[in-house]
Request: fold
Amino acid sequence: MKDLESLSASQAAHALAKREIKATDLLLACLDRIGQRESAVKAWVSLGKENALARARELDKGAIRGLLHGLPIGVKDLYDTFDLPSSYGSPIYSNHYPATDAVSVALMRQAGGIILGKTVTTEFAAFKSAATSNPHNPLHTPGGSSSGSAAAVADFMVPLATGSQTAGSIIRPASFCGVVGYKPSFGKISVAGVKSLSPIQDTLGCFGRSIGDVALGVAAMSGDHALARIEDLHNKPRIAICKTPDWAIAQKETAAALAVARFAAEAISKGSVGDLKLPTLFDQYSQTQARIMAAEMSRSLTFERLRFPKKISPQLAKQLNDGAAISYEQYTKDLLLNQEAHAAIQLIFCKELDLIIAPSAIGEAPGSKETTGDPIFCRGWTLLGLPCINLNITSGPNGMPVGVQLIAGPGKDHFLLSAARAFARSLSDPVTRDQA
Amino acid sequence: MKDLESLSASQAAHALAKREIKATDLLLACLDRIGQRESAVKAWVSLGKENALARARELDKGAIRGLLHGLPIGVKDLYDTFDLPSSYGSPIYSNHYPATDAVSVALMRQAGGIILGKTVTTEFAAFKSAATSNPHNPLHTPGGSSSGSAAAVADFMVPLATGSQTAGSIIRPASFCGVVGYKPSFGKISVAGVKSLSPIQDTLGCFGRSIGDVALGVAAMSGDHALARIEDLHNKPRIAICKTPDWAIAQKETAAALAVARFAAEAISKGSVGDLKLPTLFDQYSQTQARIMAAEMSRSLTFERLRFPKKISPQLAKQLNDGAAISYEQYTKDLLLNQEAHAAIQLIFCKELDLIIAPSAIGEAPGSKETTGDPIFCRGWTLLGLPCINLNITSGPNGMPVGVQLIAGPGKDHFLLSAARAFARSLSDPVTRDQA
Reply:
């Protein structure tokens, strides 16, 4: 079989489980692709080539280990790995070898996954851009903070890679790179062993090139293996488009993507798809999210702030100082508003809706490497803890990918995957149909 | 001033802030006490004597740093510390030096605390007993898993020490050792950098010898500094005793403690204190907690289970295997029941009550070092995420301390501290009154 690196994670997992392909060959194809493309894309911080090859050979000889048997995986460098340095995008941790894998990494290894290397993260997953380029055009950002994972998957270097989202660090780069990004429900995957930023909303997830891929990844990372068996939709879901209170800054291509999405959504809901106007308490919710994030990050990085102030970038230092200046009283007020918001969205999902479709980003990936783009269209959904999936829909004025996100009610990850697959299948765009 | 080691944390903090005592002298007094007693109590895994002395001298010279200025603190060895080994009670991590402090440790240092050493935890904070003795009688357990912290504070080795609770690991040892133990609301203190067991309920807290002490500790660990200024009760709180569905196994001394507690509660509520019977959905809630904990722990310790199976004790291995055998379907059912339980308890606190008083443990500390006692009377409150404080009330048939726990509604930590101080003051027992 040729072009093994172009198989999606679910295609490859299927072929590996049936022994139709070898883990070693898939790995070598990925390494070959990385060899050709890495100098342009810069997706990787480190590669554990020898360990990965040894593991692939072992897996080819032994029994099928689990859902990820033989799949090469990129791990965002915000995650701890015992056998690869974990620097969290910061010079403070250059050449840092943790003693232990992050829980989700250990679960992926247990499921037969091959940890091929660590992918580029921005500094502590914040907003300062990193070296990675967008594979579709090297002058554009891949988005952040999971920059390397999104780019590596988009560029066929690896079929599956992990991400994390505190504001918009999975959905935004997935949209910019034209891949599927899945941020499951808050708490679905243990965050232990992943650098902590804002504990109330840090969420792990992954990137793939199909809905089945990301289902597989989150199934292994969470231990909820049934997620990998996506069920067909049994009922017509109630769907609405939510442009959110931040709609004024959306660009034309995002409006176009939503228009296409509405069409596909109407096909699966078998009726017209209306617009959801969020209650007024959400008017400033993106700002609430940013304040909570800044306040919690400034506490989470106390050790680094005390001991290595000079090794923190001016951009991050400013964010942390702003966060430290937020009073605990303000933080408590924000948490109370957040509780109300959780209750309000729960009610909406109970009474009115099964699925929300919303922008993933303002528009296509900015044509600059100095920014990772604006996470504003993700902030609220992240703080709400709702499961979200980005799907590629169209392209922008510079030909860069543009996605939308599908959002389900609290804890409804199984339904979200079913709906996303049905949605992807109903899209007329053949590229997007391939994602299903 | 003599006997500095017998000052409570809040007394010492007050004297240190006024420069009435020196951090160096307090530290030397604590080290002296440890020197006399450690061979009998075995509360410590490691001591950072030189670093602590250097830090104390620096603090005595410089400005007042914060709430914990100059206070020597014991840190449970489940917490990461960059300058002291962190072994989580397991031979897998013997001589392991993390790169970073746990977030809560960094916040304590920022507030001027002196990390004196690491205190004994049971293996991964589970149920296999460790070396520590109960300071009141070396043949009795101090409880677990925060064994060393509870014993060190009870024995005047240190005025303040940290703990963590996933089942009953703060409240139970506090009761067994006759000290104040405070488990704040779930999420109040970042758990980052503390070995993760059951992410849905792992909660950090601390031990002291007065309500003011534990308020000070949690104020610094969380960043909610206003917690350290305990306000007087403004209204008469609505209080009930809750014997819980597990009451059948309570011993006589626990019943006696609740009877005394009812008397004190009536004094502060200015009326009769009734009994709360929990809704039937709580009938098996302790078992639900145990299952969720076992299932999550088996995932959280995947790395250790895969790579170091022989370095896990048979007792813990059994618990982890039992946890791994719980289906994700069962786990999901348990999470759903837990959601209902959260809603039910929230309603009770909204409509009927401000404060619950419940047993801290079955009875006094068992007269054995082979067990750490049964956490059953803590399991449910931990999974509910409610703030709890243990206060010493009476003693059992062997003269060992017996406490009760005061429990407030979700997020009501400020109120809990106010109520606990009023409660402690109203107790007729002069020993307990001293805790206020």
